[in-house]
Amino acid sequence: MTNATAVIGAGSFGTSLAIQLARRGSTTLLWGRNADKLAAMQEARENAQYLPGCHFPVKLAATADLPGAVDAADDLLIATPSHALRATLEQLKPMLREGQGLIAACKGLEPNTGKLVHEVIEDVYGSSRPFGVLSGPTFAKELGIGLPTAVTIASADEAYAENFARLLHGDGFRAYWSEDLVGVEIGGAAKNVMAIGVGIADGLSLGANTRAALITRGLAEIMRLAIAMGGKAETLMGLAGMGDLVLTCTDNQSRNRRMGLLLAQNRSVDEAIAEIQQVVEGVKAAPEVLRLAQRYEVDMPITAAVHGVLIGRLSAVEAVNLLATRPARAEVVAD
Ligand SMILES: NC(=O)C1=CN([C@@H]2O[C@H](COP(=O)(O)OP(=O)(O)OC[C@H]3O[C@@H](n4cnc5c(N)ncnc54)[C@H](OP(=O)(O)O)[C@@H]3O)[C@@H](O)[C@H]2O)C=CC1
Ligand SMILES: O=C(CO)COP(=O)(O)O
After folding, report:
1. Distance of alpha carbon 308 from alpha carbon 302, whole angstroms
2. Residues labelled as active-site residues
3. Which of 108, 210, 257, 306 would bridge with 206, disulfide CB 3.0–4.6 Å?
4. What region holds the Glycerol-3-phosphate dehydrogenase NAD-dependent C-terminal domain (predicted)?
5. Residue 82: its pLDDT value, please?
């Protein structure tokens, strides 16, 4: 299949996805907002700031020319942080041609509105073009160096999801497709909050039992929310649910987990962000996940405790005590 793709957002994930597309034979243009950084990437054939050690295949070019990249592309892959999604879509809008579709790889919710990624896309583009989301357990570095990785691509237009999955699939990369936008997106956004929680618990040396309990009960509350919003339970048992939750909660490549580890050392959120130096989506997602939980009348005690720590209402130890002293109850995963 011949294809040209513009990857919008040249951070760690955009760069790794661009490398995979180019590896699979797509002509790939990687665009970022900082022209100097893009010129340096094109010269060095790697993204030394965000993804050092991952060499660019010959079919990948880094560019600061956004209209040129969009014009050359059949499809777009958006890999900015979630908080920049709406502005990015607005910026792209006048450049898009009829029929060009897009896949967004952002894992989060819109700040202040709690909108899902596909809802923001619909707000800006209506139903004028095919779109979808990509999620799953995918640390950028592992994808960048070519270790085996699997993702889910979801779209209401399943054929579009399948076509995009086929562009990425191969060379150790497995891309599945799905129609469940809500399940895939809630899985991707809410697991970041859980990873902060597990990081806090591990930072306080609460042990492997606590880690497993938090992941399992975390999945239960994510699943309750996704189902209440119209997502499918089976999606949350898949790559974009359990898969990404386990990955992010258990490995220090996760920026969200590292945020939790630092909070457990009584570092402030701002200090932790300054140390991590990359996007930590769970910080902005926590209040939005809670807002959705309230709207859909879903109990999310772990998310609420993590949010309490992030806004300084609870210390890490107080958050743990709050969860540990909840009343006994029957084990229910998804009502
Ligand atoms: N990294 C990973 O392993 C994975 C990340 N994701 C998701 O991918 C998305 C992107 O994250 P990731 O690549 O990791 O982030 P990084 O922190 O690695 O990079 C962020 C990128 O976004 C750009 N950026 C930051 N703020 C804005 C803004 N306001 N407007 C436009 N561009 C902006 C930065 O540009 P500049 O350098 O100029 O500041 C940089 O290129 C997130 O939603 C994340 O959850 C999903 C799966 C895996
Ligand atoms: O989403 C990710 C892996 O699938 C990356 O997680 P972090 O954003 O916590 O680093």
Report:
1. 10
2. 191
3. 210
4. 180-320
5. 98
Instruction: Give CA separation, 36 vs 56, 66, 70, 124, 334, in Å.
Output: 17, 14, 20, 29, 49
* Residue listed under structure tokens 């034979």: 25
Label residue 227 exposed, middle or buried (CB < 10 Å: 0-12, 13-18, 19+). buried
- CB neighbours (10 Å) of residue 297? 8
The Cα–Cα gap between 144 and 268 comes to 31
pTM of the full predicted structure?
Answer: 0.97
Determine the residue of 13, 37, 134 to mutate for testing ligand 1's pocket, defined as the one with the most ligand atoms within 8 A of the Cβ atom. Answer: 13
- Euclidean distance between CA atoms 298 and 296, whole angstroms: 6
Q: Ligand 2 in contact with 138 (CB < 6 A)?
A: yes
Cα separation, 48 vs 129, in Å, equals 34
| Ligand 1 pocket check for 31: Cβ under 6 Å | no
Q: How far apart, in whole angstroms, are the C-alpha atoms of residue 279 and residue 12?
A: 10
Residue 9 is labelled as binding a ligand: yes
Rounded-to-integer distance, Cα 319 and Cα 79, Å: 32
The residue-averaged pLDDT of 45-52 equals 98
Q: Does the beta carbon of 82 sit less than 6 angstroms from any atom of ligand 2?
A: no
For residue 89, the one-letter residue type is L
Average pLDDT along the chain: 97
Task: For residue 52, give both structure tokens.
Answer: 């050092």
Residue 230 annotated as part of some ligand binding site: no
